[in-house]
Amino acid sequence: MNHIKYILSLAFGLVCCGLVAALTACSDYDETIETCTLTVALHFPEGASAQKDGIRVELRSIGHDALFVDSTDTQGIAHFQVTPGIYEASSSSTHKQGSNGLLILNGTSGQIVVKEQAADVAIDLQGSSISQLVIKELYNGGVLKDDGKNFMYDKCVILYNNSPQTATLSNLCFGIVSPYNSQADNKWYGTDGRLIYDSEGYVPAIDGIWYFPETLQIDPYQQVVVNIHGAIDNTLTYPQSVNYAHAEYYCMYDPEAGYTNANYYPAPSEVIPTSHYLKAIKIGISNAWALSVTSPALILFQTQDITPQQFATDVGNLRYTPGAPQTDVYKVAKVPVEWILDGIEVYSAASTTSNKKRLTATVDAGYVNLTNQYGHTLYRNVDKAATEALSENDGLLVYGYESDPSGINAEASLRNGAHIVYMDTNNSSSDFHEREQCSLRE
Q: pTM for the whole thing?
């Protein structure tokens, strides 16, 4: 099984005002002009796709969090009418590769500044294959206590084998991409408005990493629950929380690594075997692996030809946040993009004007909003066509779930014995939705 993603070098141009391909109608800009035309040109590599029209392109205004959507014409160009400001463009599409394979083409622009002297923005689209193992669900926002405050020590992530073959994975790790919150001041952007590590082939994992100490095996269309914080029955104290006292669950618990904060890491429920405890390698100074309650960027990856311990302790794989003091507080591990199996970029729904991308387009070209504190979870959308195509699902699928674009209620269908195939386009905007409660509560 091949879980390693690969990158195709493409060109994805945004050119402004009077230049050959792009931000046109702006060169004579003055205060009387209310809008100008922004054209987004997509360029595909030879043989990747014969179809250039009908490709969805999204444009988000960072200042106002407005979203504009257009489809490309026969030349592979999308057209937008925008006012001066700061924007992010993105595109995600699935293409045939060979006779049976699929190729995901994703691209993001970084920050596009539209003003009097519009800049010529050069963007690389990146291609990646589909991973067998996906993040099915991320629950991290916490719930409200009786006193109106947030209880945030009950997080989890659920992994899912999205294929009909058994998944066997060694050196499987989790990381948080810097900075912790999407709305934080992000020092990883260069003067060109792009993430500086995008062209260097890595993402910065902050504070430390967690890993499965043994090879993990997951049967077809089955899941593994990994508790991040609070591997106990939290419902005994907070009824709206989650009960993790199950023998089949895994948990992040490794006080010997230095993660000793008892609020985050109470002693796990005795029903969880110690063989299901993940191990940690701490590279920062925190006493807890502080997965954001508002807006994390979480990655799932496998180290290749090296153990997680060797990777995270090799100084050659470490660096510091740009412009920050070179202390352990700002130390990160450079996780190669080709190691990453899946990722999810979460934006804070309460910070509409300050969210910024941390994951590169190969990993995740989009984002999903989270309204935290209310027990909400981020859940992967169902691939309707692929799920309905499975003959074993006849009569087992449950419909009428409006939050998922497919209309299929995945959890109710799973309880019926159905096999669910989830969307996997490496774009959280298309792949995830915000759900009312964690599926483990049902």
A: 0.77
